[in-house]
Specification:
The complex is a heterodimer of chains A (256) and B (344). By secondary structure, chain A is mostly beta strands. Chain A is built from one helix and 20 strands. In chain A, the strands form six sheets. A five-stranded mixed sheet of chain A has the order 9-15-14-11-12, with no helix packed on it. Helices cover 68% and strands 0% of the residues of chain B. Classes of the chains: A mainly beta (256), B mainly alpha (344). The interface between A and B is medium-sized, with 31 and 30 residues.
Protein backbone atom coordinates (compact mmCIF):
# COMPACT_ATOMS: atom_id res chain seq x y z
CA UNK A 1 0.00 0.00 0.00
CA UNK A 2 2.82 2.40 0.79
CA UNK A 3 3.86 2.26 -2.85
CA UNK A 4 0.40 3.43 -3.82
CA UNK A 5 0.77 6.47 -1.58
CA UNK A 6 4.18 7.18 -3.10
CA UNK A 7 2.57 7.28 -6.53
CA UNK A 8 -0.53 9.21 -5.53
CA UNK A 9 1.06 11.92 -3.40
CA UNK A 10 2.96 13.59 -6.27
CA UNK A 11 -0.12 13.27 -8.47
CA UNK A 12 -2.27 14.99 -5.90
CA UNK A 13 0.34 17.73 -5.59
CA UNK A 14 0.42 18.12 -9.37
CA UNK A 15 -3.35 18.39 -9.43
CA UNK A 16 -3.28 21.02 -6.70
CA UNK A 17 -0.67 23.06 -8.57
CA UNK A 18 -2.63 22.69 -11.78
CA UNK A 19 -5.79 23.80 -9.98
CA UNK A 20 -4.07 26.92 -8.66
CA UNK A 21 -2.66 27.80 -12.03
CA UNK A 22 -5.56 26.84 -14.20
CA UNK A 23 -8.64 28.34 -12.64
CA UNK A 24 -7.96 31.96 -13.46
CA UNK A 25 -4.83 31.93 -15.52
CA UNK A 26 -5.74 34.97 -17.54
CA UNK A 27 -5.16 37.22 -14.55
CA UNK A 28 -1.60 36.14 -14.22
CA UNK A 29 -0.71 38.05 -17.37
CA UNK A 30 1.55 40.96 -16.56
CA UNK A 31 1.04 44.39 -18.09
CA UNK A 32 2.69 44.77 -21.44
CA UNK A 33 6.11 46.31 -21.32
CA UNK A 34 6.37 49.54 -23.34
CA UNK A 35 7.77 48.88 -26.78
CA UNK A 36 8.18 52.50 -27.85
CA UNK A 37 11.64 53.65 -28.90
CA UNK A 38 13.47 56.23 -26.70
CA UNK A 39 12.69 58.97 -29.19
CA UNK A 40 9.07 57.91 -29.62
CA UNK A 41 6.51 60.69 -29.56
CA UNK A 42 2.79 61.16 -29.32
CA UNK A 43 0.78 61.49 -32.50
CA UNK A 44 0.04 65.10 -33.36
CA UNK A 45 -3.74 65.35 -33.79
CA UNK A 46 -3.30 68.41 -35.99
CA UNK A 47 -1.60 66.35 -38.70
CA UNK A 48 -3.41 63.05 -38.21
CA UNK A 49 -5.16 61.37 -41.09
CA UNK A 50 -8.21 59.15 -41.42
CA UNK A 51 -8.44 55.78 -43.12
CA UNK A 52 -11.94 54.62 -43.78
CA UNK A 53 -13.59 52.17 -46.07
CA UNK A 54 -15.70 49.13 -46.53
CA UNK A 55 -15.42 45.36 -46.48
CA UNK A 56 -17.36 43.57 -49.20
CA UNK A 57 -18.06 39.93 -49.78
CA UNK A 58 -17.43 38.48 -53.21
CA UNK A 59 -19.57 35.56 -54.28
CA UNK A 60 -22.79 34.26 -52.83
CA UNK A 61 -23.31 34.89 -49.16
CA UNK A 62 -22.86 31.67 -47.18
CA UNK A 63 -25.85 30.69 -45.09
CA UNK A 64 -25.49 31.08 -41.36
CA UNK A 65 -26.28 27.87 -39.51
CA UNK A 66 -29.53 27.62 -37.62
CA UNK A 67 -28.99 27.56 -33.89
CA UNK A 68 -31.27 25.40 -31.80
CA UNK A 69 -31.08 26.42 -28.19
CA UNK A 70 -33.38 23.78 -26.78
CA UNK A 71 -30.57 22.13 -24.82
CA UNK A 72 -31.05 24.85 -22.20
CA UNK A 73 -34.64 25.92 -21.41
CA UNK A 74 -33.31 29.20 -20.03
CA UNK A 75 -32.11 30.12 -23.51
CA UNK A 76 -35.60 29.88 -24.95
CA UNK A 77 -36.97 27.57 -27.58
CA UNK A 78 -36.61 29.96 -30.51
CA UNK A 79 -34.12 29.38 -33.25
CA UNK A 80 -31.43 31.88 -34.05
CA UNK A 81 -29.15 32.34 -36.98
CA UNK A 82 -25.40 32.38 -36.58
CA UNK A 83 -23.65 35.72 -36.90
CA UNK A 84 -20.71 34.74 -39.05
CA UNK A 85 -22.02 36.22 -42.27
CA UNK A 86 -23.98 39.43 -41.78
CA UNK A 87 -24.18 41.36 -45.02
CA UNK A 88 -25.76 44.76 -44.89
CA UNK A 89 -26.16 47.02 -47.92
CA UNK A 90 -23.43 45.14 -49.77
CA UNK A 91 -20.96 45.28 -46.90
CA UNK A 92 -19.86 42.58 -44.47
CA UNK A 93 -20.32 43.29 -40.77
CA UNK A 94 -18.22 41.96 -37.87
CA UNK A 95 -14.90 42.19 -39.67
CA UNK A 96 -11.93 43.33 -37.60
CA UNK A 97 -9.84 45.96 -39.45
CA UNK A 98 -6.55 47.25 -38.09
CA UNK A 99 -3.17 48.65 -39.02
CA UNK A 100 -1.00 45.60 -39.19
CA UNK A 101 2.37 47.14 -40.14
CA UNK A 102 3.94 50.54 -40.52
CA UNK A 103 3.61 52.10 -37.09
CA UNK A 104 6.84 50.59 -35.82
CA UNK A 105 7.72 51.83 -32.34
CA UNK A 106 7.79 55.51 -33.24
CA UNK A 107 4.72 56.48 -31.24
CA UNK A 108 3.53 56.48 -27.67
CA UNK A 109 -0.06 55.52 -27.03
CA UNK A 110 -1.88 55.63 -23.73
CA UNK A 111 -3.66 52.39 -22.98
CA UNK A 112 -7.29 52.89 -21.97
CA UNK A 113 -8.19 51.50 -18.57
CA UNK A 114 -11.92 51.37 -19.15
CA UNK A 115 -12.97 47.87 -20.09
CA UNK A 116 -14.35 46.69 -23.39
CA UNK A 117 -17.56 44.81 -22.65
CA UNK A 118 -19.11 41.65 -24.00
CA UNK A 119 -22.49 40.62 -22.67
CA UNK A 120 -23.87 37.08 -22.64
CA UNK A 121 -27.49 37.83 -23.35
CA UNK A 122 -30.11 35.44 -24.71
CA UNK A 123 -27.37 32.81 -24.87
CA UNK A 124 -25.26 34.61 -27.39
CA UNK A 125 -22.42 37.09 -27.16
CA UNK A 126 -23.19 40.79 -27.71
CA UNK A 127 -21.34 42.11 -29.63
CA UNK A 128 -20.04 39.27 -31.75
CA UNK A 129 -16.63 40.85 -32.47
CA UNK A 130 -14.76 43.41 -30.36
CA UNK A 131 -11.36 45.02 -30.48
CA UNK A 132 -9.20 46.16 -27.60
CA UNK A 133 -5.69 47.11 -26.66
CA UNK A 134 -3.08 44.94 -25.00
CA UNK A 135 -3.51 45.07 -21.20
CA UNK A 136 -6.87 46.80 -21.58
CA UNK A 137 -9.51 44.87 -19.59
CA UNK A 138 -12.11 42.82 -21.39
CA UNK A 139 -15.18 42.62 -19.18
CA UNK A 140 -17.49 39.70 -19.84
CA UNK A 141 -20.89 39.77 -18.16
CA UNK A 142 -23.46 37.05 -17.75
CA UNK A 143 -26.87 38.66 -18.08
CA UNK A 144 -28.62 35.33 -18.57
CA UNK A 145 -30.53 33.39 -15.96
CA UNK A 146 -28.36 30.37 -16.70
CA UNK A 147 -24.71 29.50 -16.33
CA UNK A 148 -22.05 30.08 -18.93
CA UNK A 149 -18.38 29.30 -19.12
CA UNK A 150 -16.18 31.84 -20.84
CA UNK A 151 -13.52 29.93 -22.70
CA UNK A 152 -10.90 32.06 -24.40
CA UNK A 153 -8.66 30.20 -26.83
CA UNK A 154 -5.77 32.49 -27.69
CA UNK A 155 -2.49 31.22 -29.06
CA UNK A 156 -0.13 34.07 -28.18
CA UNK A 157 -1.82 34.77 -24.84
CA UNK A 158 -2.89 32.66 -21.88
CA UNK A 159 -5.89 30.40 -22.39
CA UNK A 160 -8.67 30.73 -19.82
CA UNK A 161 -11.93 29.03 -18.92
CA UNK A 162 -13.99 30.88 -16.35
CA UNK A 163 -17.34 29.67 -15.06
CA UNK A 164 -20.11 32.19 -14.54
CA UNK A 165 -22.87 30.24 -12.81
CA UNK A 166 -24.82 33.20 -11.42
CA UNK A 167 -26.75 35.84 -13.33
CA UNK A 168 -24.98 39.20 -13.21
CA UNK A 169 -21.51 37.78 -12.74
CA UNK A 170 -18.70 39.56 -14.53
CA UNK A 171 -15.03 38.85 -15.00
CA UNK A 172 -12.19 40.89 -16.42
CA UNK A 173 -9.58 39.38 -18.72
CA UNK A 174 -6.47 40.99 -20.15
CA UNK A 175 -4.21 40.02 -23.02
CA UNK A 176 -0.53 40.70 -22.91
CA UNK A 177 0.34 40.17 -26.56
CA UNK A 178 -1.32 41.41 -29.75
CA UNK A 179 -3.42 38.68 -31.33
CA UNK A 180 -6.01 38.82 -34.09
CA UNK A 181 -8.49 37.13 -33.67
CA UNK A 182 -8.96 35.31 -30.38
CA UNK A 183 -11.97 32.96 -30.31
CA UNK A 184 -14.24 32.96 -27.27
CA UNK A 185 -16.69 30.16 -26.76
CA UNK A 186 -19.09 28.76 -24.23
CA UNK A 187 -18.72 24.99 -24.00
CA UNK A 188 -22.08 24.70 -22.24
CA UNK A 189 -23.87 26.27 -25.20
CA UNK A 190 -21.83 25.11 -28.15
CA UNK A 191 -23.28 27.70 -30.54
CA UNK A 192 -22.02 30.67 -28.51
CA UNK A 193 -18.90 32.19 -29.94
CA UNK A 194 -17.32 35.60 -30.22
CA UNK A 195 -14.00 36.98 -31.41
CA UNK A 196 -11.58 39.47 -29.91
CA UNK A 197 -8.96 41.44 -31.79
CA UNK A 198 -6.08 42.57 -29.58
CA UNK A 199 -3.57 45.14 -30.85
CA UNK A 200 -1.01 47.40 -29.21
CA UNK A 201 -2.18 50.65 -30.81
CA UNK A 202 -5.48 52.49 -31.20
CA UNK A 203 -5.97 51.99 -34.94
CA UNK A 204 -8.56 49.27 -35.19
CA UNK A 205 -12.27 48.97 -35.84
CA UNK A 206 -15.01 46.41 -36.33
CA UNK A 207 -17.13 46.85 -39.43
CA UNK A 208 -20.67 47.93 -38.78
CA UNK A 209 -23.63 48.81 -40.99
CA UNK A 210 -22.79 48.52 -44.64
CA UNK A 211 -19.48 46.89 -43.76
CA UNK A 212 -18.06 50.34 -42.99
CA UNK A 213 -15.06 51.09 -40.78
CA UNK A 214 -13.00 54.14 -39.88
CA UNK A 215 -9.54 54.52 -38.35
CA UNK A 216 -9.03 58.06 -37.04
CA UNK A 217 -5.99 59.94 -35.82
CA UNK A 218 -3.52 58.01 -37.94
CA UNK A 219 -0.09 59.63 -38.18
CA UNK A 220 1.13 60.32 -41.75
CA UNK A 221 2.95 57.35 -43.20
CA UNK A 222 2.71 54.16 -45.19
CA UNK A 223 0.86 51.22 -43.67
CA UNK A 224 -0.47 47.80 -44.28
CA UNK A 225 -4.08 47.59 -43.20
CA UNK A 226 -5.62 44.18 -42.68
CA UNK A 227 -9.22 43.00 -42.55
CA UNK A 228 -9.82 39.76 -40.66
CA UNK A 229 -13.00 37.70 -40.70
CA UNK A 230 -13.65 34.71 -38.44
CA UNK A 231 -14.41 32.38 -41.35
CA UNK A 232 -13.19 34.04 -44.52
CA UNK A 233 -9.66 34.73 -43.35
CA UNK A 234 -7.69 37.91 -43.85
CA UNK A 235 -6.75 40.31 -46.60
CA UNK A 236 -4.27 43.21 -46.47
CA UNK A 237 -4.03 46.45 -48.42
CA UNK A 238 -1.22 49.03 -48.52
CA UNK A 239 -2.06 52.66 -47.92
CA UNK A 240 -0.07 55.88 -47.65
CA UNK A 241 -1.58 58.86 -45.87
CA UNK A 242 -0.28 62.39 -45.68
CA UNK A 243 -1.03 65.12 -43.17
CA UNK A 244 -4.78 65.56 -42.57
CA UNK A 245 -5.32 63.10 -45.36
CA UNK A 246 -8.36 60.89 -45.85
CA UNK A 247 -8.06 57.60 -47.66
CA UNK A 248 -10.75 55.15 -48.62
CA UNK A 249 -10.05 51.43 -48.80
CA UNK A 250 -12.22 48.60 -50.05
CA UNK A 251 -11.42 45.10 -48.83
CA UNK A 252 -12.81 42.16 -50.74
CA UNK A 253 -13.24 38.85 -48.94
CA UNK A 254 -14.07 35.86 -51.08
CA UNK A 255 -16.78 33.42 -50.11
CA UNK A 256 -15.46 29.88 -50.45
CA UNK B 1 -14.95 -17.24 0.78
CA UNK B 2 -14.72 -20.70 2.24
CA UNK B 3 -10.98 -21.05 2.67
CA UNK B 4 -11.34 -24.61 3.89
CA UNK B 5 -13.06 -25.68 0.70
CA UNK B 6 -11.03 -28.69 -0.46
CA UNK B 7 -12.25 -28.22 -4.03
CA UNK B 8 -10.25 -25.00 -4.26
CA UNK B 9 -7.12 -27.03 -3.68
CA UNK B 10 -8.03 -30.02 -5.78
CA UNK B 11 -9.45 -28.08 -8.71
CA UNK B 12 -12.50 -30.35 -8.80
CA UNK B 13 -15.55 -29.08 -10.67
CA UNK B 14 -18.37 -28.01 -8.39
CA UNK B 15 -20.62 -25.11 -7.50
CA UNK B 16 -18.83 -22.07 -6.08
CA UNK B 17 -19.57 -20.95 -2.52
CA UNK B 18 -22.22 -18.26 -2.31
CA UNK B 19 -19.86 -15.59 -0.93
CA UNK B 20 -17.48 -16.14 -3.82
CA UNK B 21 -20.31 -15.94 -6.30
CA UNK B 22 -21.47 -12.60 -4.93
CA UNK B 23 -17.92 -11.27 -5.07
CA UNK B 24 -17.68 -12.36 -8.68
CA UNK B 25 -21.05 -10.80 -9.49
CA UNK B 26 -19.93 -7.56 -7.93
CA UNK B 27 -16.74 -7.61 -10.00
CA UNK B 28 -18.88 -8.09 -13.11
CA UNK B 29 -21.08 -5.17 -12.05
CA UNK B 30 -18.02 -2.95 -11.69
CA UNK B 31 -16.86 -3.95 -15.18
CA UNK B 32 -20.35 -3.16 -16.53
CA UNK B 33 -20.31 0.24 -14.79
CA UNK B 34 -16.94 0.87 -16.38
CA UNK B 35 -18.51 0.38 -19.80
CA UNK B 36 -21.11 2.95 -18.77
CA UNK B 37 -18.31 5.29 -17.71
CA UNK B 38 -16.51 4.86 -21.03
CA UNK B 39 -19.81 5.61 -22.78
CA UNK B 40 -20.21 8.82 -20.79
CA UNK B 41 -16.61 9.78 -21.51
CA UNK B 42 -17.17 9.09 -25.19
CA UNK B 43 -20.18 11.40 -25.20
CA UNK B 44 -18.12 14.15 -23.54
CA UNK B 45 -15.47 14.09 -26.25
CA UNK B 46 -17.94 13.45 -29.08
CA UNK B 47 -19.97 16.52 -28.13
CA UNK B 48 -16.88 18.62 -27.34
CA UNK B 49 -18.20 19.17 -23.84
CA UNK B 50 -14.95 18.51 -22.02
CA UNK B 51 -14.58 22.09 -20.85
CA UNK B 52 -18.22 22.89 -20.19
CA UNK B 53 -17.45 22.55 -16.49
CA UNK B 54 -14.36 24.70 -16.06
CA UNK B 55 -13.46 23.76 -12.49
CA UNK B 56 -12.47 20.48 -10.86
CA UNK B 57 -13.14 18.73 -8.51
CA UNK B 58 -15.91 21.27 -7.90
CA UNK B 59 -18.59 22.04 -10.46
CA UNK B 60 -19.08 25.79 -10.95
CA UNK B 61 -18.03 26.12 -7.33
CA UNK B 62 -20.56 23.56 -6.04
CA UNK B 63 -19.61 20.32 -4.44
CA UNK B 64 -19.89 17.88 -7.32
CA UNK B 65 -22.64 15.89 -5.59
CA UNK B 66 -24.81 18.90 -4.73
CA UNK B 67 -24.72 20.58 -8.13
CA UNK B 68 -28.39 21.46 -8.83
CA UNK B 69 -30.14 19.28 -11.36
CA UNK B 70 -31.69 22.38 -12.95
CA UNK B 71 -28.23 23.46 -14.04
CA UNK B 72 -27.48 20.32 -15.98
CA UNK B 73 -27.86 22.08 -19.31
CA UNK B 74 -26.06 22.00 -22.64
CA UNK B 75 -22.62 20.42 -22.49
CA UNK B 76 -22.76 20.22 -18.69
CA UNK B 77 -25.16 17.27 -18.96
CA UNK B 78 -22.42 15.17 -20.52
CA UNK B 79 -19.44 16.36 -18.50
CA UNK B 80 -21.16 16.36 -15.12
CA UNK B 81 -22.78 12.99 -15.73
CA UNK B 82 -19.34 11.64 -16.63
CA UNK B 83 -17.92 12.96 -13.38
CA UNK B 84 -20.70 11.47 -11.27
CA UNK B 85 -20.45 8.06 -12.95
CA UNK B 86 -16.67 8.24 -12.50
CA UNK B 87 -17.12 8.93 -8.79
CA UNK B 88 -19.53 6.02 -8.50
CA UNK B 89 -17.13 3.69 -10.29
CA UNK B 90 -14.35 4.93 -8.03
CA UNK B 91 -16.43 4.10 -4.96
CA UNK B 92 -17.38 0.70 -6.34
CA UNK B 93 -13.71 -0.01 -7.05
CA UNK B 94 -12.81 0.76 -3.43
CA UNK B 95 -15.45 -1.73 -2.32
CA UNK B 96 -14.21 -4.27 -4.85
CA UNK B 97 -10.57 -3.88 -3.79
CA UNK B 98 -11.39 -4.27 -0.10
CA UNK B 99 -13.79 -7.13 -0.74
CA UNK B 100 -11.20 -8.90 -2.87
CA UNK B 101 -8.55 -8.39 -0.21
CA UNK B 102 -10.91 -9.85 2.39
CA UNK B 103 -12.13 -12.95 0.55
CA UNK B 104 -9.66 -13.78 -2.17
CA UNK B 105 -7.06 -16.44 -1.36
CA UNK B 106 -4.85 -15.69 -4.39
CA UNK B 107 -2.37 -12.93 -3.63
CA UNK B 108 -2.08 -11.83 -7.24
CA UNK B 109 -5.84 -11.35 -7.47
CA UNK B 110 -5.80 -9.30 -4.28
CA UNK B 111 -3.06 -7.15 -5.81
CA UNK B 112 -5.10 -6.84 -8.96
CA UNK B 113 -7.94 -5.34 -6.91
CA UNK B 114 -5.66 -2.63 -5.57
CA UNK B 115 -4.10 -2.09 -8.99
CA UNK B 116 -7.61 -1.34 -10.27
CA UNK B 117 -8.14 1.05 -7.38
CA UNK B 118 -4.84 2.83 -8.13
CA UNK B 119 -5.75 3.03 -11.80
CA UNK B 120 -9.16 4.55 -11.15
CA UNK B 121 -7.69 7.14 -8.76
CA UNK B 122 -5.01 8.05 -11.28
CA UNK B 123 -7.71 8.19 -13.94
CA UNK B 124 -9.72 10.67 -11.88
CA UNK B 125 -6.68 12.87 -11.32
CA UNK B 126 -5.84 12.76 -15.04
CA UNK B 127 -9.43 13.73 -15.84
CA UNK B 128 -9.19 16.70 -13.51
CA UNK B 129 -5.81 17.79 -14.81
CA UNK B 130 -6.93 17.65 -18.42
CA UNK B 131 -9.85 19.96 -17.61
CA UNK B 132 -7.70 22.41 -15.66
CA UNK B 133 -5.09 22.50 -18.41
CA UNK B 134 -7.70 22.93 -21.18
CA UNK B 135 -7.54 19.40 -22.60
CA UNK B 136 -3.92 19.12 -23.73
CA UNK B 137 -3.84 16.16 -26.15
CA UNK B 138 -1.11 14.28 -24.25
CA UNK B 139 -3.09 14.26 -20.99
CA UNK B 140 -6.40 13.56 -22.70
CA UNK B 141 -4.88 10.65 -24.63
CA UNK B 142 -3.42 9.34 -21.37
CA UNK B 143 -6.89 9.62 -19.81
CA UNK B 144 -8.40 7.67 -22.71
CA UNK B 145 -5.65 5.03 -22.65
CA UNK B 146 -5.85 4.52 -18.90
CA UNK B 147 -9.62 4.15 -19.15
CA UNK B 148 -9.10 1.04 -21.24
CA UNK B 149 -6.43 -0.29 -18.86
CA UNK B 150 -8.80 0.15 -15.95
CA UNK B 151 -11.56 -1.55 -17.91
CA UNK B 152 -9.20 -4.44 -18.63
CA UNK B 153 -8.40 -4.73 -14.92
CA UNK B 154 -12.08 -4.92 -14.00
CA UNK B 155 -12.69 -7.48 -16.75
CA UNK B 156 -9.74 -9.53 -15.50
CA UNK B 157 -11.04 -9.40 -11.94
CA UNK B 158 -14.48 -10.47 -13.07
CA UNK B 159 -12.99 -13.32 -15.10
CA UNK B 160 -10.56 -14.75 -12.59
CA UNK B 161 -13.13 -14.67 -9.78
CA UNK B 162 -15.67 -16.54 -11.89
CA UNK B 163 -16.56 -20.16 -11.09
CA UNK B 164 -15.69 -21.05 -14.65
CA UNK B 165 -12.13 -19.88 -14.11
CA UNK B 166 -11.74 -21.17 -10.58
CA UNK B 167 -13.05 -24.65 -11.25
CA UNK B 168 -11.76 -25.18 -14.76
CA UNK B 169 -10.55 -28.69 -15.33
CA UNK B 170 -8.03 -29.52 -18.04
CA UNK B 171 -7.53 -26.04 -19.44
CA UNK B 172 -6.32 -25.70 -23.03
CA UNK B 173 -2.54 -25.57 -23.28
CA UNK B 174 -1.79 -24.17 -26.75
CA UNK B 175 1.34 -22.09 -27.19
CA UNK B 176 0.33 -20.79 -30.62
CA UNK B 177 -3.05 -19.68 -29.30
CA UNK B 178 -1.40 -17.86 -26.43
CA UNK B 179 0.89 -16.01 -28.80
CA UNK B 180 -1.67 -15.02 -31.38
CA UNK B 181 -4.25 -14.02 -28.76
CA UNK B 182 -1.78 -11.92 -26.78
CA UNK B 183 -0.53 -10.18 -29.91
CA UNK B 184 -4.11 -9.50 -30.99
CA UNK B 185 -4.97 -7.94 -27.65
CA UNK B 186 -1.86 -5.77 -27.77
CA UNK B 187 -2.70 -4.69 -31.33
CA UNK B 188 -6.26 -3.79 -30.34
CA UNK B 189 -4.99 -1.67 -27.47
CA UNK B 190 -2.49 0.05 -29.77
CA UNK B 191 -5.28 0.73 -32.24
CA UNK B 192 -7.37 2.26 -29.45
CA UNK B 193 -4.45 4.51 -28.54
CA UNK B 194 -4.11 5.64 -32.16
CA UNK B 195 -7.86 6.29 -32.19
CA UNK B 196 -7.59 8.35 -29.00
CA UNK B 197 -4.68 10.31 -30.46
CA UNK B 198 -6.73 10.99 -33.57
CA UNK B 199 -9.75 12.01 -31.53
CA UNK B 200 -7.86 14.37 -29.24
CA UNK B 201 -6.09 16.00 -32.16
CA UNK B 202 -9.34 16.67 -34.01
CA UNK B 203 -8.25 14.40 -36.85
CA UNK B 204 -11.37 12.24 -36.98
CA UNK B 205 -12.50 13.77 -40.25
CA UNK B 206 -9.08 14.65 -41.63
CA UNK B 207 -9.86 12.18 -44.40
CA UNK B 208 -13.44 13.01 -45.31
CA UNK B 209 -14.34 9.88 -47.27
CA UNK B 210 -14.43 6.15 -46.61
CA UNK B 211 -13.31 3.54 -47.60
CA UNK B 212 -11.19 5.61 -49.99
CA UNK B 213 -9.06 8.54 -48.87
CA UNK B 214 -9.73 11.66 -50.94
CA UNK B 215 -10.87 9.27 -53.66
CA UNK B 216 -7.63 7.27 -53.59
CA UNK B 217 -6.37 4.17 -51.83
CA UNK B 218 -3.48 6.19 -50.43
CA UNK B 219 -4.13 9.83 -49.51
CA UNK B 220 -2.72 12.17 -52.17
CA UNK B 221 -2.19 14.92 -49.57
CA UNK B 222 -0.43 14.49 -46.27
CA UNK B 223 -0.20 16.34 -42.99
CA UNK B 224 -0.08 15.20 -39.37
CA UNK B 225 -3.85 14.81 -39.07
CA UNK B 226 -4.20 12.92 -42.35
CA UNK B 227 -1.34 10.64 -41.26
CA UNK B 228 -3.06 9.94 -37.92
CA UNK B 229 -6.37 9.24 -39.58
CA UNK B 230 -4.78 6.95 -42.15
CA UNK B 231 -2.79 5.16 -39.44
CA UNK B 232 -6.06 4.39 -37.67
CA UNK B 233 -7.48 2.96 -40.90
CA UNK B 234 -4.41 0.84 -41.52
CA UNK B 235 -4.57 -0.20 -37.86
CA UNK B 236 -8.15 -1.35 -38.39
CA UNK B 237 -6.98 -3.65 -41.18
CA UNK B 238 -4.15 -5.05 -39.07
CA UNK B 239 -6.39 -5.62 -36.06
CA UNK B 240 -9.09 -7.25 -38.16
CA UNK B 241 -6.52 -9.60 -39.65
CA UNK B 242 -5.21 -10.49 -36.20
CA UNK B 243 -8.70 -11.10 -34.87
CA UNK B 244 -9.59 -13.31 -37.83
CA UNK B 245 -6.36 -15.24 -37.29
CA UNK B 246 -7.01 -15.74 -33.58
CA UNK B 247 -10.64 -16.66 -33.99
CA UNK B 248 -9.87 -19.03 -36.87
CA UNK B 249 -7.23 -20.74 -34.77
CA UNK B 250 -9.68 -21.22 -31.92
CA UNK B 251 -12.53 -22.41 -34.11
CA UNK B 252 -10.30 -24.80 -36.05
CA UNK B 253 -8.26 -26.28 -33.21
CA UNK B 254 -10.59 -25.94 -30.23
CA UNK B 255 -14.15 -25.82 -31.62
CA UNK B 256 -15.61 -27.74 -28.69
CA UNK B 257 -14.05 -25.54 -26.01
CA UNK B 258 -16.93 -23.18 -25.33
CA UNK B 259 -14.86 -20.91 -23.09
CA UNK B 260 -12.68 -20.14 -26.14
CA UNK B 261 -15.08 -20.57 -29.05
CA UNK B 262 -17.69 -18.14 -27.71
CA UNK B 263 -15.33 -15.18 -27.24
CA UNK B 264 -13.74 -16.00 -30.60
CA UNK B 265 -17.12 -15.78 -32.33
CA UNK B 266 -18.07 -12.70 -30.35
CA UNK B 267 -14.78 -11.08 -31.33
CA UNK B 268 -15.53 -11.64 -35.02
CA UNK B 269 -18.97 -10.10 -34.61
CA UNK B 270 -17.71 -7.12 -32.62
CA UNK B 271 -14.95 -6.27 -35.07
CA UNK B 272 -17.48 -6.32 -37.93
CA UNK B 273 -19.68 -3.94 -35.95
CA UNK B 274 -16.65 -1.79 -35.16
CA UNK B 275 -15.65 -1.35 -38.80
CA UNK B 276 -19.24 -0.52 -39.71
CA UNK B 277 -19.42 2.06 -36.93
CA UNK B 278 -16.09 3.53 -38.01
CA UNK B 279 -17.43 3.95 -41.54
CA UNK B 280 -20.57 5.62 -40.24
CA UNK B 281 -18.51 7.98 -38.07
CA UNK B 282 -17.05 9.36 -41.31
CA UNK B 283 -20.25 9.21 -43.36
CA UNK B 284 -22.27 10.92 -40.62
CA UNK B 285 -19.74 13.70 -40.17
CA UNK B 286 -18.80 12.47 -36.70
CA UNK B 287 -22.27 12.05 -35.27
CA UNK B 288 -21.82 12.02 -31.45
CA UNK B 289 -23.94 8.90 -30.83
CA UNK B 290 -22.18 6.90 -33.56
CA UNK B 291 -18.81 8.19 -32.49
CA UNK B 292 -19.47 7.14 -28.91
CA UNK B 293 -20.75 3.75 -30.00
CA UNK B 294 -17.46 3.29 -31.90
CA UNK B 295 -15.49 4.05 -28.72
CA UNK B 296 -17.59 1.73 -26.54
CA UNK B 297 -17.56 -1.10 -29.06
CA UNK B 298 -13.78 -0.68 -29.29
CA UNK B 299 -13.61 -1.30 -25.55
CA UNK B 300 -15.82 -4.37 -26.00
CA UNK B 301 -13.46 -5.70 -28.67
CA UNK B 302 -10.52 -5.18 -26.32
CA UNK B 303 -12.30 -6.77 -23.36
CA UNK B 304 -13.38 -9.81 -25.38
CA UNK B 305 -9.91 -10.31 -26.78
CA UNK B 306 -8.51 -10.00 -23.27
CA UNK B 307 -10.87 -12.68 -21.99
CA UNK B 308 -9.83 -14.99 -24.81
CA UNK B 309 -6.18 -14.27 -24.12
CA UNK B 310 -6.47 -14.87 -20.39
CA UNK B 311 -8.32 -18.12 -20.98
CA UNK B 312 -5.64 -19.22 -23.40
CA UNK B 313 -3.15 -18.66 -20.58
CA UNK B 314 -5.35 -20.46 -18.06
CA UNK B 315 -3.16 -23.56 -18.01
CA UNK B 316 -0.12 -21.42 -17.32
CA UNK B 317 -1.80 -19.90 -14.30
CA UNK B 318 -1.60 -23.30 -12.62
CA UNK B 319 2.16 -23.02 -12.74
CA UNK B 320 2.36 -19.27 -12.15
CA UNK B 321 0.05 -19.14 -9.19
CA UNK B 322 1.76 -18.58 -5.89
CA UNK B 323 1.00 -20.55 -2.73
CA UNK B 324 -2.28 -19.20 -1.44
CA UNK B 325 -1.90 -16.83 1.47
CA UNK B 326 -4.81 -15.35 3.31
CA UNK B 327 -4.26 -12.80 6.07
CA UNK B 328 -7.27 -14.01 8.06
CA UNK B 329 -6.22 -17.61 7.70
CA UNK B 330 -2.68 -16.95 8.82
CA UNK B 331 -3.85 -14.79 11.71
CA UNK B 332 -5.95 -17.67 12.95
CA UNK B 333 -2.92 -19.92 12.91
CA UNK B 334 -4.11 -22.10 10.04
CA UNK B 335 -1.22 -21.23 7.78
CA UNK B 336 -1.20 -20.84 4.01
CA UNK B 337 -3.22 -22.99 1.66
CA UNK B 338 -1.22 -25.15 -0.71
CA UNK B 339 -0.97 -24.32 -4.42
CA UNK B 340 -3.76 -25.41 -6.71
CA UNK B 341 -3.67 -28.97 -7.82
CA UNK B 342 -1.77 -30.05 -4.73
CA UNK B 343 -3.56 -32.10 -2.15
CA UNK B 344 -3.41 -30.58 1.32
Amino acid sequence: MSSIYRVLAPLALTAAIAACGGSDASKSAEPASPKAAPDARRVDPATAATISGKVVLEGSVPENPTIKMSSDPACGSSELRGESYVVDNGGLKNVFVYIKDGLGNKYIFDTPTDPVKIDQKGCHYVPHVVGLRTTQPLEIVNSDNTLHNVHGMPKANVEFNQGQPVQGMKNDFTFKAPEVLIPLKCDVHAWMNAYVGVVDHPYFAVTGDGGRFELRGVPPGTYSVEAVHEKLGRVSLPVTVGEKDSKELTFTLKAQ
Amino acid sequence: MNDRDPHLATGALRVAPRATLWHHRFAKAVAACTVLLITAGGMVTSTDSGLSVPDWPTTYGWNMFTFPLSKWVGGIRYEHTHRLIASTVGFLTIVLAVWTWRVEPRAWVRRLGFAALGAVILQGVLGGITVLLFLPPAVSIGHAGLAQIFFCLTVTLALVTSPGWTYTVDPVDDRMLRRVAAVTTALIYSQILIGATMRHNAAGLAIPDFPLAFGHLIPPVWNAKVALNFAHRVGALVVTTAIVATSSHVLYHHPRRRELAWPALLLLGLVAVQITLGAFVVWSGRNPAINTAHVVNGAAVLGTSLVLTLRSFRAGFERLVQPIRMPQREASGLGALPPRGVQP
